[in-house]
Task: structure prediction
Amino acid sequence: MNVSLQIAKRYLFGKKSTNAINLITGIAILGIAVGTAALILILSVFNGFKLLTKNHLDHYNPDLKITPIEGKFFAVDDDALAKLENLSGILGVSRVIEEVAHFEYNSKQQIGIVKGVDDSFIEVTDLNEAINEGQPRLKSSEAYYAIVGSGVYRTLNINLSSRMESLKISVPNRRKRGPLDKDFKTRPFLTSAVFSIKNEKDNQYIIVDYTMASNLLDLKNQVSALEIKIDPSSDIESLKGQVQQIFPQDTFDTKDRMSQDAALIKIMNIEKWSSYLIFSFTLVLIIFNVIGCLWMIVLDKRKDLSVLQSFGATKKTIKRIFLIEGAMISGIGFFIGLVVSVVFYILQKNIGIITVPDGFSISSYPMEMHASDIFIILITVMTLGICASIPASRRAGRISGYVRME
Result:
């Protein structure tokens, strides 16, 4: 039997000489519970937004993307492309070309990025899943079409059903040789659909046919990237290695889906753990209640501690009592906070207690609870609780043993 543990339990749950100590103990446990629940729920919200962002990116980003390390464009080697398409596990390869462009629609103007894609692009990226309005198509026998980001769509106030007003895309004229040549090349497009992936690409991108874009840019047989769709049952890392044998690492950069938006994911992780640190500092302030609680218990139990020492308890045993008691207070607070957060999490996932304003694709805040986050918070709470027990533990260790004088 652990004597220190038994005595700590008795001191925590037993009757005190004054109700104020019980009240302070309850406040300390409640404070830790609230702090724990807040930490778990905040990290869960960040996890939810990260998962939501990843799901939206899945509709736009390909499984693998090959880009040049130097420069913006590269010529496609037919033999290399054939080897790539013949790799086992690769379902499709799409050629894309991107460049900064000027957009104009019915006197409204914007600078953005035009992205030329071939017929395989929609299948390679599952863009159909990100279409909000219209039917995605890039060309017909009568005209060329553009698929616009939702932000561009709103900024230019595009009428999707109109066939009278065309979207004009202009780029610098690469073949300008003299003062009589035009500074820009412009092509008209009808708008066929609007896509939304809930990030900055919505406000920048317009997707058009690859052949039309390459003619507009005077970059025939060149691409900005090759985008690849992989069989879900295939090992993406193994395939990535095979792709890098065809397109060497010293010349080309091959990125998987998450690496293509590494900056966005990194920012979200920084925000998540910054919030964790901020609320951890708040938890430090709450832990001061534990210090006050244990200090009052030490004062209340001075005579008992003296008697324990007279029965042979060492100062180390006395100190351990209050370290264990601090850990118990923190553990109880953590458990209550965990239960509260799990209940709230279930309600939010199924009912949506906290909603988001109108205009978003979701009706309530997304949440995703991770066991690793809970474990980190447990370590944080227990560490702070034990650290808060040290002052009271040292004070208890300085109490002298009780000696009765005859």
Q: What stands out?
A: Residues 19-58 form the longest helix (40 residues). The chain is about 50% helix and 20% strand. The chain has two domains: 3-57+264-397, 63-256. The CA atoms of residues 267 and 273 lie 10 Å apart.
